[in-house]
TrEMBL record:
This is RNA polymerase II subunit B1 CTD phosphatase RPAP2 homolog. InterPro entries: Rtr1/RPAP2, Rtr1/RPAP2_dom, Rtr1/RPAP2_sf. It comes from the Eukaryota. GO terms for molecular function: RNA polymerase core enzyme binding; RNA polymerase II CTD heptapeptide repeat phosphatase activity; zinc ion binding. It catalyses: O-phospho-L-seryl-[protein] + H2O = L-seryl-[protein] + phosphate; O-phospho-L-threonyl-[protein] + H2O = L-threonyl-[protein] + phosphate. Gene3D superfamilies: 1.25.40.820. Keywords: Hydrolase, Metal-binding, Nucleus, Protein phosphatase, Zinc, Zinc-finger. It comes from Xylaria grammica. Residues 84-171 form the RTR1-type domain. Belongs to the RPAP2 family. Pfam families: RPAP2_Rtr1 (PF04181). GO terms for cellular component: cytoplasm; nucleus. Its main location: nucleus. Its EC number is 3.1.3.16.
């Protein structure tokens, strides 16, 4: 018996293979979405309120101001409280804290108990380190934020550790830690730093002495004499003479005697031959018109 050809298979999917309405993706409830967003906004507001409250509290720091505690050696409780509260700050929040402390008359560095400096005299800008390599022109307002340059350095050391990311995105990260400027400096390192600073200072003094000695040697070569280690004032004979100045001659407008022939930049010219002929004709006419006696 011959085999019957097989039936062609259809390309359409069976109805049983199609997804049923019960297996379709569940559409979220709009009310649940609104509640979830409201909770997120509420949590963000709570973090912002905590930062605002901490700025008000830190503007009155430090709580312990008795000796031996100071800006370089703050009380441990104040230091820990400050680092814990400022860890979620953005740089703009830290600037608000500095302004709030200045409004209270305190130094911008939170752990400093001293009042901020007041620069005498008017002016919007001040010259800093005049005559040195680090000379600069700084706004007076920036100088009055701190009690000293050391506190300004301590405050900026804190600011560079802050992040621009929103506070609520970093609130759950426990690894964020803020270090103080003196935290990573022990006594040995501090002594070594002072020793290097002293060596640099001695080198600068030696350079200045060498420059002064070179100036004295040069003065001796010129024939000057130094008395009491000071360079004398050299006397120079000056002769003041009056310089003879010749008054300039006035320019001549009529150089060739024919300026009267120039009209609006054009100079009239005459032909000598035609002029002689016309004069002869005039003399002949005069002879012919003269009556005979």
């Amino acid at each position: 018996m011959s085999k019957q050809p097989g039936k062609p298979k259809g390309i359409l999917k069976n109805k049983s293979a199609l997804p049923s309405k019960s297996t379709e993706q569940h559409t979220p409830d709009p009310r649940e979405v609104a509640i979830r967003h409201a909770q997120i906004i509420h949590s963000r507001r709570e973090v912002e309120d905590q930062i605002s409250e901490s700025i008000i509290e830190l503007s009155k720091f430090p709580n312990t101001r008795d000796s031996p505690y100071n800006a370089s050696n703050p009380a441990p409780a104040d230091a820990e409280s400050f680092k814990d509260r400022v860890r979620l700050y953005q740089p703009s929040d830290y600037d608000d804290l500095i302004e709030e402390r200045n409004a209270n008359g305190l130094c911008g560095y939170t752990l400093c108990p001293n009042p901020r400096s007041r620069i005498a005299g008017g002016g919007t800008f001040k010259l800093v380190n005049f005559g040195r390599k680090d000379f600069n022109i700084v706004p007076t307002r920036e100088l009055e934020k701190w009690c000293s340059q050391k506190c300004a350095k301590r405050a900026m050391y804190i600011k560079v550790q802050l992040n621009e990311t929103a506070a609520w995105e970093r609130a759950g990260i426990a690894s964020i830690h803020i270090d103080l400027f003196e935290d990573d400096i022990d006594a040995t390192t501090g002594d070594a730093t002072k020793q290097r600073e002293k060596e640099v200072e001695n080198l600068e003094i030696e350079a200045l002495e060498k420059t002064a000695q070179n100036a004295r040697d040069l003065a001796l070569e010129r024939g000057d004499s130094a008395e009491n280690g000071k360079m004398p004032k050299r006397s120079i004979k000056l002769t003041i003479r009056e310089k003879t100045v010749n008054a300039p001659a006035a320019p001549s407008l009529d150089t060739d005697g024919q300026t009267h022939l120039v009209t609006e930049g054009y100079k009239t010219t005459f032909d000598p031959k035609s002029e002689t002929v016309s004069q002869k004709n005039k003399s002949t006419d005069v002879k012919e018109t003269t009556p005979k006696e």
